[in-house]
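Exercise 7b. Backbone tokens:
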């Protein structure tokens, strides 16, 4: 049978970036001279081409990360084909207001893997929509076999986020996503 897990709501797609101190000084001179924000400057492809980058994502030496925000407005739905099995607010997977754990959740700290040399920053896009559609081909769905891997609050986003799903200790991969970008932001870490 086919079971589907959909995550709807707000999410963050982000790139961990770093540039040399010399590049930062050059970038900042241009930013100040033209009275621009970091966001406006880093989406300017002419500016980036001048420094040898074709896109701002090239400032990152790691692959893009995406996390699903855990709040009462975001929804997790589980369906067997078109029949709803369960629909919950995403914040419920934290088991904060329950006497016993309703959902299998692992909370891990977000580890900062940025290099200390130069200037480090995060480029993030806040998005809304279908964060992820996961499909399972199994005979019976058991909520106890579904595991949510959550990042605890971190210093950049200051929110708890879902970063991965497991079923029977197998990581699930997103089959489909459909989001709309609402915000583009640059946060300097040092």
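Sequence design result:
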């Amino acid at each position: 049978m086919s079971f589907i897990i959909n995550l709807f709501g707000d999410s963050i797609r982000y790139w961990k970036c770093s540039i040399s101190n010399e590049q930062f000084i050059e970038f900042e001179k241009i930013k100040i001279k033209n009275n621009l924000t970091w966001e406006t400057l880093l989406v300017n492809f002419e500016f980036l081409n001048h420094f040898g980058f074709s896109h701002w994502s090239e400032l990152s030496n790691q692959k893009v990360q995406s996390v699903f925000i855990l709040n009462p407005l975001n929804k997790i739905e589980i369906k067997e084909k078109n029949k709803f099995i369960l629909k919950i607010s995403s914040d419920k997977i934290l088991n904060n207001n329950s006497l016993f754990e309703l959902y299998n959740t692992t909370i891990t700290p977000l580890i900062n893997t940025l290099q200390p040399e130069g200037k480090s920053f995060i480029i993030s896009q806040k998005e809304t929509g279908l964060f992820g559609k996961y499909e399972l081909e199994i005979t019976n769905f058991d909520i106890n076999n579904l595991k949510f891997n959550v990042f605890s609050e971190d210093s950049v986003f200051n929110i708890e986020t879902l970063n991965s799903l497991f079923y029977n200790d197998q990581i699930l991969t997103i089959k489909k996503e459909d989001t709309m970008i609402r915000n583009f932001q640059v946060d300097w870490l040092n």
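Instructor comment: The chain has a mean pLDDT of 90. Residues 28 and 38 are 9 Å apart (CA to CA).
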